[in-house]
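Everyone, study these two lines:
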Amino acid sequence: MPLPVAKPRILVVEDETIVARDIKLQLIELGYQPVGHATSGEEALVLASELNPNLVLMDIQLAGALDGIATAQLIREKLALPVVFLTAFAADDVLARAKLTEPFGYILKPFSERELRTVLEMALYKHQADARLRDTTSQLRALSRRVLEVQELERRRVALELHDELGQSLTAIKINLQAHERFKNQSPSELNAENIRIVEEALQQVRRLALALRPSVLDDLGLAPALRWLAEQTVTRSGLVVQVHPSLPVLRIAAEIETVCFRIVQEALTNIVRHAKATRVEIDVRQDGDLLRLSVQDDGCGFDWRAMKQRALAGASIGILGMQERAALVGGQIDIDSSVGRGCTVRFRCPLMLRDQTDGLLPGALL
């Protein structure tokens, strides 16, 4: 049975009690929930802070030191709540002042129920859209900041490995070659053997660097072998039991989707190893009609998903936002199911696209 939809909660600010009672009755008939009635700007500020309504319906002419426009400005600055003005006055100077508060609507008395509903619905919709935009903007800022940090960390790591390992190997070869030139009467066999050993070590170092940046198994063999390789690396590093259950089409999945799936699993496993205190991880990837579904489930300690999301928006934990952004790039969606003490499941789904022999994209049919 579906849960009942919560009614929008509206605070009415009107200094005439009879008018306020009539407005509240109209709101109830229209399917809204009046949560309070204030008769002054000062009282409106207190009630708005305590009740946290979805919208404030504000009369402009109020008794007291604060009129409706000044009150709306304070509500916008302190509480970020949408305000709709309700007034019998339409003077140009009043409208000019009201516009400065960036209201979500303006209703002139007398008004019909249809007018009231239309303005309120548009105001609530605009406020929700603005809130989603603010969240998206915060996510993008946090992601951009983290991308730059990770980029610099990766550059520093690669630079150190090139300098400390590959650089030393090449320097050793150079010294050996110079020694060979200076001591031409000596047998070169041992010197050549040493050079060959150093070159082999340098090649291994280059392979490790390349593998850390992007495993070749993903490009060469596809998603399922790459996930098995990643699981083996995780088992070796952490001692976790990691099982991969692939059920994929015969043809290769589109390269960009393979990359997104691999990076989501990689990030999920990294988080599990660092934080989950888990013993077992199940990775499932399969075709479901025209969709690709991926899940990573662990038996660890879990976490408070809402609190984690707030930390991510503040830039403290960016892995989850990164997964969501990768999912969005291929038209997909990430869902995370976790609570304290109950482990975590990361689910990803997206339209399944395959590549044919010419590397074009085909609708996801099992061939």
Summary: The longest helix spans residues 113-182.
